[in-house]
Predict the structure.
Amino acid sequence: MTAQPILQVENLGFAIGDHQILADISCGFETGAIHGLIGPNGSGKSTLLRNLCRIWEPQQGQVLIEGRDYRRLSRKTLSQMVTLVQQDTRLDFSILVSDFVAMGRHPHLKRLQWLRQRDMDIIEQALQVTGTTVFRNRPINELSGGEAQLVSLARALATEAPIILLDEPTSALDIRHKLEIMDLLTGLRDAGKTILISIHDLDLARRYCDTVTLLQQGRIHYHGLAAKGFAKQRIKEVFHVGVEEIATEHGVSLLFYR
Ligand SMILES: Nc1ncnc2c1ncn2[C@@H]1O[C@H](COP(=O)(O)OP(=O)(O)OP(=O)(O)O)[C@@H](O)[C@H]1O
């Protein structure tokens, strides 16, 4: 990990109407790591991710990408730098999977420019690594929730953005696909990508994330190394459940109880 975070959040505050959803968010995300974003329902994880890619803009504070305020970057440049895999992958319109994944190349094309051979190779690669090549000629609306999640990840990979934000990308996946996605993210991390993933499965997060940011009612409760973030007392304070750690041959697993 490098000293200068590729993604830095300074005193971020965000409200919708008079509902203050995020307040005093300050944290940095270093390159080449998987950063977990954890917190109870409604704690602000999706809202923060949306603020980090400028779908929504904070009213207070700023977001710096490679040290530059992201408001100073063009939308095109920002889309080349940051991509978001949204939680809800359903679309209001029908589009073929291959065309949907190809949308990931738009930030790299000029207006009305056709896909080049290099773009098509990248799309092919994104379909392959996510195991979604078999769906390429199907309308995305006809896929299951889990299949659509994988296709959304393929679109994100096609952007080649160095920062990948994922909003609960494993929520609709069966356990085998969950592990495959987390292994895929590990490979991307090892290749130098910065990954910020909101995730409810604390056990999976404990196993795969390098750092963790714990949100509670729109504020940061903890931001730092994952091992400390999953301390029993901390989980109890944030989620109001007890937790035990058990050592397995694959590392530490968490066991929850009320
Ligand atoms: N479009 C919106 N309009 C008004 N309030 C919203 C909107 N989106 C989110 N909120 C509110 O912001 C708060 C945080 O929501 P958010 O979806 O960011 O939480 P989350 O941590 O991602 O939750 P979950 O784990 O359930 O997905 C909630 O109180 C929610 O009701």
Remarks:
- The chain has a mean pLDDT of 91.
